[in-house]
Structure formats: structure tokens, C-alpha cells
Amino acid sequence: MSIDQDRIPRKTLCSGEKIPAIGLGTFGSDKYGADQVAEAVLGAIRYGYRLIDCASVYQNEDRIGQVLRQVVQEKTVTRSDLFVISKVWNDMHAEGQVIISCKKSLQDLGLDYLDLYLVHWPFRNYHAPGCSGDSRNPDSKPFSPDEFMETWQQCEELVEKGLVRYIGMSNMTIPKLEAVLPRCRIKPAVLEMELHPSFQQPELFDYAVSRNILPIGYCPLGSPSRPERDRTDEDVVDMELPAVVEAARAHGIHPAEVCLKWAVQRGQVPIPFSVKEHQYKSNLKCITEDPLTEEEMEAIRLEDRNCRLIKGQVFLWEGSKGWEDLWDVDGKITGLE
Ligand SMILES: NC(=O)c1ccc[n+]([C@@H]2O[C@H](COP(=O)([O-])OP(=O)(O)OC[C@H]3O[C@@H](n4cnc5c(N)ncnc54)[C@H](OP(=O)(O)O)[C@@H]3O)[C@@H](O)[C@H]2O)c1
Questions:
Q1: Structural domain boundaries in the chain
Q2: Of 16, 70, 85, 219, which residue is the least packed, with the fewest Cβ within 10 Å?
Q3: Inter-residue contact 255 to 244 (CB < 8 Å)
């Protein structure tokens, strides 16, 4: 049995268009292969998911494309029912490269257009998929507004060519946004950012919402299967936070479901990943019923520990002090001359 679409909450984009309030992540975390992820996308769409978060660097868009063709052919959905996201990876930002990357994603996904195309990371600093946490690229550089705008202008052209419907940014900070937003002809429709109970980014979240940019929250469950390179001893386990566990007990549900209810009720679009049928099904179903109380929402708000999990240290440049430099923790763009 699938979930009735009318029961799935929706969020509104700047254009007024409504999109599902939850989606399916597709990054296998170097742990789940393309076939497993594609199988999950198939089961998830049949169950009622419509928003799918893909990326060229996840190395599974071709397999997901076969599934997208299948669900349209079998009439589970029409193309316009789906909201498919992809992202340009850091090695494809230079002049003329973004369109090549976008067309490759379109070809792999078997689509004529993407609903949303994101700049995955706001710089060209490249690391190969699956690299270790201490690997560094000697060519890496700090964020450059001019370089970013060169990439963004190519994204704007994709909209004008009809290859993508919306464009957005990911892994941004307020100082970076302040530097580039006034220069955008087409504003970002969304900001994809790490968001979970122990990492709520309230300032960046409010900044986006106040500018009519919809936050999409990645790692909504605290990414328990994330790669080794993204683990440190200080990391908090979201599903063990007292307010999350307490709400799970009160509602008789798994803590994962509490994290997702919290995310949707707060206002972001969470994109949980799972290849396990019972998990991806409960992740969608939970947001259609039995909401958290105001008190539970407030108790979870107070669990924010500023615990960033995806620190991005593999993108650091020579001379940078540590992963905090990527996130402009001093309130200005780190490394900018
Ligand atoms: N824009 C970016 O830079 C960026 C960065 C990171 C991620 N993302 C996107 O965000 C998506 C989600 O992030 P993520 O995969 O890192 O983290 P996540 O969704 O927070 O965690 C996924 C893991 O949580 C567990 N899980 C899922 N549902 C569960 C349930 N109902 N009960 C218990 N455990 C459950 C599964 O672990 P087990 O496999 O161990 O069961 C699964 O692998 C990615 O797939 C990707 O699409 C984007």
C-alpha cells in the first residue's frame, strides 16, 4: 500500500509551487552500492516519495535513471509528479563545464530536465569520491565570490535553456551568501544544508527563510552510516539526544521518526537516506500523522549542540588552520584577500 499524496505535507518555493516536505537521499556513504540505492528509489517512489536528492558524485545516477524510466513506464507516476534534484561536483565549475555536467546527469537520469540543480560545494576544491579524511588537494583555494559567480552564471543559463527548473546552493554560509546573492540574476530557490537536532544552524536557517529560500536539510538523522572520514570522537548521536528519545517514547515511535517530524514541523525539507524498506517507509509515513507537540519541538530546539558532522576537511587549502575555515566561523569569508 502506498501513501496517499494528499497526506504528505508540502513546502512552498519562491515561485509559489508546492513541493513535498520530505525527500529521499541517495548518497550511499561509500557503504551502499548503486544497485541497492536504485532499488530503494524504486520502492520509495512506489510507496509515495516524489522528491529525490541525487548528485553526480554519488556515482549512481545511471542506475537511478533506469528506475525513473521504470516508474514512469509502469504508470506509478508521470514525470511531472517527480521533483528530481542533481548537483554539479567541484571539478566541473569552470567555464563551459557546468552544462556538460548537467547534461551528463540528465542523460544518466534519463530526463529532459531537472527540477532543481545545486552547486554542491561553493568552490572548485576537488577530492575523489571515497578518499580518506586526511587527503588534501594542493590546488585547493579559499572561497572566491568571482569564481562562484562564474559557476552560478552557468547555472542561470541552464534555467534559460530549459534544462533545469530551479537552481540552488549547498554548503553555504551567511558571509558567502552576502557576497554573492546581490550578484545573482536568478536567486537560489533552495539552500541545501546540514540540519539535524544537534546541528540546527538557526542563523543560516532564518537567513534563508527570511529571503524566501527554502532550506533542504541533509543528514536529518545525524547520518549514522556516514563515511569514516566524516567521524570524530566529539560527534553527537542525534537519535540518542534526551529530548528525541523522550518524544519517541511518548509517541511510541523510533527516534528517527522524531527527527523527521521535528524537521518538517520546523520548516525544512529533510532528505533521509535509507536502502531498508521498513526505514524509508516509516520515514515518509511518520510525517503524515501524530505531530510533535509544541513542548516537544521546544525541547528539541534546546538540544542544538552546534555539532557539524560533515566538516569538509578534505576541501581545505594550503595554509588553512582547520575545517572551521570552510564555514566562516568568524563571521567573514575565511581566506579571502
Ligand atoms: N549537499 C550535500 O553536501 C550533502 C551532504 C550529505 C548528504 N546529502 C544528502 O542527504 C542525504 C541524507 O544524508 P545521510 O544519508 O548522510 O544521513 P541520514 O539521512 O541522516 O542518515 C541515513 C542513515 O540513517 C539510518 N536510518 C534511516 N532511516 C532510519 C530509520 N527509520 N530508523 C533508523 N535508522 C534509520 C540508516 O542507517 P543504516 O544504513 O545503518 O541502517 C541510513 O543509512 C544523502 O543521502 C544525500 O542525498 C547532501
A1: 5-323
A2: 16
A3: yes
Q: Identify the CATH homologous superfamily for domain 5-323.
A: NADP-dependent oxidoreductase domain (3.20.20.100)
DSSP type of residue 72: H
Mutate to test the pocket of ligand 1, among 56, 173, 223 (most ligand atoms within 8 A of CB): 223
Are 62 and 40 contacting, i.e. CB atoms less than 8 angstroms apart? Answer: no
Expressed in angstroms and rounded, the spacing between residue 36 Cα and the centre of ligand 1 is 14
- 32 pLDDT above the threshold of 80: yes
Instruction: Indicate the SS3 state at residue 231.
Output: coil
Q: Which atom of ligand 1 is nearest to the CA of 259?
A: 20
pLDDT tens digits for 148-183? 999 999 999 999 999 999 999 999 999 999 999 999
Residue 315: partners with Cβ closer than 8 Å, 6 or more residues away: 90, 121, 123, 125, 127, 137, 140, 326
Helix (H, G, I), strand (E, B) or coil at 218: strand
3-state secondary structure of 18: strand
What is the identity of the amino acid at 248? A
CA torsion angle 334 235 35 134 (round to 10): 50
pTM: 0.98
**Percentage with pLDDT > 70 across the chain:** 100
- Which pairing describes strands 269-270 and 10-12: parallel, antiparallel, or unpaired? unpaired
Cα dist from 83 to 5, 44, 54, 98, whole Å: 14, 13, 11, 20
Q: Whose CA is nearest to atom 37 of ligand 1?
A: 225
CA-based nearest residue to 209, from 267, 269, 271: 267
DSSP state of 2: P
H/E run at residue 295: helix 294-301
Task: List the beta bridge partners of residue 117.
Answer: 86, 167
Query: Is the CB of residue 36 below 6 angstroms from any atom belonging to ligand 1?
Result: no
Show the cell assigned to 332: 567573514
Of 67, 54, 65, 66, the closest CA to residue 27 belongs to 54
